[in-house]
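pls design
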């Protein structure tokens, strides 16, 4: 069953705690779901003791009841951290909805980048079923708050006034002035202390319209992490895929600050595309905010099915490109190389082969990865990236029968037996595939600890020649028998 979930948009001026509220709502949703799973006892086992959920046990050990266990949005004191719309699915009690975090509303932007943020907020308001208007109890009502209220009233959507940062009784008493905004009863929250969040969620699910439900088999969602250095065109690529200005694009580095999840359908397959902040060398990161955004990008690679590394073909492959490629390979992630800005290259019959050869030399760790030459600006071949990612994912999940593997192992070792090491030759007897994502193989034999890296590479290349494993790393382990 696929459900079209109602959307709840979080809006407000900069630095009132919108992203903190977004994180708290998603964390409380996950905690309630884990608690329900831990408390659920099969009817046949009602008299048996129930083991506590491991994740809940860890939370209690670490004292994380008042701290989100995972942050979906980067939170920092710097105004304007959130720029693009950031979505997350929420389940509270028996209701499901989607929460969207937005950038701070500036009523008089003097920067084209901030102006783009406002357009993102307007889009979130247009699609929302309910709006959470967040204000700051510590500052009281600011002039921008009143202007934003007028903007929200014009949107003609149900509005919840959320007075955040009520971290003590003193702030709650002082926050009474927010009644003057003429909205419904204010709801007091403290994201720092996790106060008022559950009550707010109760009110949200009561006010939301019922979700539209259609019954059909829905294929699993494929998760793509779009990664690369700053200004290679990651956000432009996503906008071109969607056919809309979904992500804010600017010539200045660092426009994308958070990992933003976008869902789309291609060839009847659902994709979740994660736009990440540009990843610079560690030595060039000077502030805590950029460090946090890079960590989110790293987390996105680890959580992805496919890592899409975007390169700018108008520039030489940089050391940071190689570092990101190394990280993708070490994580065992399947990947696709996207060569962006291909429209800016003067081409003849030798141009494409020359680029392919150069990439082989500059990124040998990803020599098995397909390359798609695109133009995010013109839309040239952008959907081919999704088609290629789907092909790579099938290879990533491929499992080879053991008899076929052992037949080939016999051929390989007869054609090229493992070289002797200190006068002793490894004897490879048996091979089986023990895992996928990435494809992982286990070889049994004698003196297998003497297998050297060149022979390991020979085995991996032989597996690729026979079975493909297009775009995916291969792991081989050994066990003495």
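designed seq:
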């Amino acid at each position: 069953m696929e459900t079209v979930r109602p959307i709840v948009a979080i809006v407000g001026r900069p630095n009132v705690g919108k992203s903190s509220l977004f994180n708290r709502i998603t964390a409380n949703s996950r905690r309630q779901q884990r608690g329900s799973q831990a408390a659920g006892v099969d009817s046949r086992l009602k008299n048996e003791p129930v083991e506590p959920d491991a994740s809940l046990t860890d939370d209690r050990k670490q004292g994380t009841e008042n701290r989100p266990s995972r942050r979906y949005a980067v939170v920092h004191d710097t105004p304007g951290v959130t720029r693009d719309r950031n979505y997350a699915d929420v389940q509270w009690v028996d209701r499901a909805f989607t929460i969207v975090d937005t950038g701070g509303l500036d009523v008089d932007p003097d920067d084209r980048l901030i102006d783009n943020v406002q357009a993102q907020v307007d889009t979130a308001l247009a699609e929302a079923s309910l709006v959470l208007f967040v204000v700051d109890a510590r500052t009281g009502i600011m002039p921008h708050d009143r202007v934003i209220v007028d903007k929200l009233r014009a949107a003609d959507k149900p509005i919840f006034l959320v007075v955040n940062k009520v971290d003590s009784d003193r702030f709650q008493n002082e926050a009474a002035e927010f009644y003057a905004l003429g909205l419904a009863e204010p709801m007091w929250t403290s994201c720092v202390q996790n106060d008022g969040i559950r009550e707010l969620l109760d009110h949200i699910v009561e006010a939301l319209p019922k979700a539209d439900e259609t019954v059909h088999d829905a294929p699993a969602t494929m998760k793509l992490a779009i990664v690369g250095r700053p200004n290679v065109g990651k956000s432009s690529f996503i906008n071109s895929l969607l056919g809309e200005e979904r992500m804010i694009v600017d010539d200045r580095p660092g426009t994308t600050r958070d990992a933003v999840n976008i869902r789309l359908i291609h060839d009847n397959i659902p994709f979740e595309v994660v736009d990440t902040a540009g990843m610079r060398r560690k030595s060039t990161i000077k502030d805590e905010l950029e460090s946090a955004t890079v960590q989110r990008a790293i987390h996105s690679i680890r959580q992805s099915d496919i890592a899409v590394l975007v390169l700018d073909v108008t520039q030489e492959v940089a050391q940071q490109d190689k570092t990101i490629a190394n990280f993708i390979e070490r994580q065992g992630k399947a990947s696709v190389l996207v060569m962006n800005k291909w429209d800016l290259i003067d081409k003849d019959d030798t141009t494409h082969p020359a680029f392919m050869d150069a990439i082989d030399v500059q990124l040998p760790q990803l020599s098995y990865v397909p390359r798609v030459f695109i133009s995010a600006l013109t839309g040239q071949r952008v959907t081919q990236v999704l088609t290629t990612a789907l092909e790579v994912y099938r290879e990533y999940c491929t499992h080879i029968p053991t008899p076929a593997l052992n037949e080939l192992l016999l051929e390989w070792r007869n054609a090229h037996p493992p070289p002797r090491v200190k006068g002793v030759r490894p004897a490879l007897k048996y091979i089986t595939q023990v895992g996928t994502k990435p494809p992982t193989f286990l070889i049994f034999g004698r003196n297998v600890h003497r297998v050297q890296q060149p022979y390991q590479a020979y085995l991996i290349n032989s597996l690729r020649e026979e079975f493909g494993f297009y775009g995916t790393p291969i792991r081989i382990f050994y066990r003495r028998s």
